[in-house]
């Protein structure tokens, strides 16, 4: 049995740490929804934010992160776009790549109650 894989795409960079944290939380909620469905999940928000904030002193640039993201996107079965994706340069590029690769695309709407205690 092959496990299906999903790539989570949506806004990350937001100008402030608080807004970026908000975007990361939304992506994490979506990632968990797909984990619960049995998918292998790749969520760049979770994969790179800690590394970028704590270790990257400019050696890895935006285009480098995006190139790696496109690599992982190409490996996934489904690409999920979070609310507000269209305002994100990276997510728009990821959508072009997903469409070009013929990937199944899902557009999520905003939801409440996706985590314990909400």
Descriptive report:
The structure is a single chain. The protein is an alpha/beta fold. It has a single domain (8-107), classed as Rossmann fold. It is 49% helix and 14% strand. The protein is built from 4 helices and 4 strands. Strands 2-1-3-4 form a 4-stranded parallel β-sheet, sandwiched between helices. Helix 1 (17-36) links the parallel strand 1 and strand 2. The longest helix is centred in the N-terminal third of the chain and has 20 residues, at 17-36. The radius of gyration is 14 Å and the shape is globular. 25% of the residues are buried.
The name CATH uses for the topology is: Rossmann fold
The 3D shape can be described as: globular
- Distance between the terminal alpha carbons, to the nearest Å? 34 Å
- The radius of gyration computed from the alpha-carbon positions, rounded to a whole number of angstroms, is 14 Å
Give descriptors for this structure:
single chain, 118 residues, alpha/beta, Rossmann fold, 4-stranded parallel beta sheet
């Amino acid at each position: 049995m092959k496990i299906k894989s999903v790539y989570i795409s949506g806004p990350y960079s937001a100008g402030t740490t608080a807004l970026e944290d908000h975007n990361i939380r939304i992506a994490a909620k979506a990632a968990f929804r797909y984990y619960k469905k049995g998918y292998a999940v790749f969520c760049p928000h979770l994969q790179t934010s800690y590394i970028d904030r704590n270790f990257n002193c400019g050696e890895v640039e935006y285009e480098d992160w995006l190139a790696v993201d496109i690599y992982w996107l190409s490996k996934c079965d489904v690409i999920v776009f979070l609310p507000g994706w269209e305002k994100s340069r990276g997510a728009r590029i990821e959508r072009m790549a997903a469409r070009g690769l013929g990937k199944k695309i899902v557009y999520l709407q905003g939801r409440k109650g996706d985590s314990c205690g909400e």
